[in-house]
Write a structure and sequence with these properties.
- It is a single chain.
- This protein is an alpha/beta fold.
- The protein has twelve helices and 17 strands.
- Helix 5 runs antiparallel to helix 6.
- The structure holds iron/sulfur cluster.
- The site of iron/sulfur cluster has 12 residues, from loops.
Length: about 375
């Protein structure tokens, strides 16, 4: 199998599919997805939420279509947003057909719960006719009865077998324009399933850990699970599922990619945990900066460090850096050079000013 390198990570080579204009797989940039949690038929609220996610940088949005009112709302929603829309379909194959006709660029289906083979065939036909890709979304919580009987309980082998059976179902319809996910709420089981699936097929993989619990536990499980798989070269698109405002999902997705040096968007903040040596209010300053700089999309590194122990070292390697000094005189660094001093009360404004200046220079290039 050919290899694609990103930094030191050897990415698994896959087929490529498109979700609207967004390429997935075969070395394409790893895309960040999220999902609306408004009532889809509430067109205004759904458009507003997607636009907020777009501001945060989301590449692809998914929308649940549990009823006909939802698929009827799709054309108006799609017309008013920039990112491609995936329709999330369960149980009713007719919703899949309606969504494909309504302009969804991809259908997320779980062929195991969509009813008869005939229903799946009709959805595939609609996808073909409307240039839609499909995501086969296997979930450990809704495995086929036969597989649960065979394996006794949800496990990675059952998830992989389900995914491959469903892939075969689509291949039998002469349809290969799909990606696959094998999510569960058990992080290690999910990782195992993705590793096995990545060896068993070359379809692009959508990564995610699902039903992750509270915000903090969700972040940690997702960062560990998705991050580990990406570091092994597995995964072509991702969604961090959080029981929280969807903007956190988008931000977390980018943080995982930034941490692995796979994709940079916006500010990378480096700051120390603070201790008795800290000579200014690093914690509050970092929280405020994160908020004030959240609209910047240019990749910039900013170091806010509490003292001279590790401060100068980190600040020197950042685009903008502050290292705490004595007598309310903190050292200010720009692009590896100390350019002066800044007082505690001026740190935020100075850093914001420099960050917007540097971001605008990058954007103009
Ligand atoms: S950089 Fe200085 S203030 Fe920050 S944790 Fe390290 S020793 Fe403490």
């Amino acid at each position: 199998m050919d290899k694609v390198f990103i930094n030191n990570i050897v990415r698994r080579k896959t087929k490529r599919v498109y979700v609207g204009h967004v390429a997935v797989g075969d070395g394409a940039q790893i895309s960040v997805q999220s999902m609306t949690n408004t009532k889809t038929a509430d067109v205004k609220a759904t458009i507003e939420q997607i636009r907020k996610a777009e501001e945060a940088g989301v590449d692809i949005m998914r929308i649940s279509c549990p009823d006909e009112a939802s698929t009827l709302a799709l054309p108006e929603i799609i017309k008013n947003v920039k990112v491609p829309i995936i329709a999330d379909i369960h149980f009713h194959y007719k919703r899949g057909i309606e969504a494909a006709k309504a302009g969804a660029t991809c259908l997320r289906i779980n062929p195991g719960n969509i009813g008869s083979i005939e229903g799946v065939k009709e959805v595939v036909r609609a996808a073909k006719d409307n240039n839609c890709s499909i995501r086969i979304g296997v979930n450990g919580g809704s495995l086929e009865k036969g597989l649960l009987e065979k394996y006794g309980e949800p496990c990675s082998d059952a998830m992989v077998e389900s995914a491959l059976m469903q892939a075969k179902m689509l291949e039998d319809e002469d349809f290969t324009n799909f990606k696959i996910s094998v999510k569960s709420s058990n992080t290690l089981m999910t990782m195992d399933a993705y590793r096995k699936l990545s060896k068993a097929c070359d379809y692009p993989l959508h990564l995610g850990i699902t039903e992750t619990g509270s915000f903090h536990s969700g972040l940690i499980k997702s960062a560990f699970g998705i991050g580990s798989l990406l570091a092994e070269g597995i995964g072509d698109t991702l969604r961090v599922s959080l029981t929280a405002d969807i903007i956190h999902e988008v931000k977390a997705g980018f943080e995982i990619l930034k941490t692995l040096d796979i994709r940079h968007r916006g500010i990378r903040l480096i700051s120390c945990p603070t201790c008795a040596r800290t000579s200014y209010n690093v914690i509050d300053i970092v929280a405020t900066l994160e908020e004030r700089l959240s609209k910047i999309t240019a990749p910039l590194t900013i170091a806010i460090m509490g003292c001279v122990v590790n401060g100068p070292g980190e600040a020197l390697h950042a685009d903008i850096g502050v290292a705490g000094g004595g007598a309310n005189n903190h050292m200010l660094y720009v692009k590896g050079k100390q350019v002066g001093f800044v007082k505690s009360e001026d740190v935020i404004e100075k850093v914001v000013e420099l960050a917007y200046e540097q971001a605008s220079a990058i954007d103009k290039k």
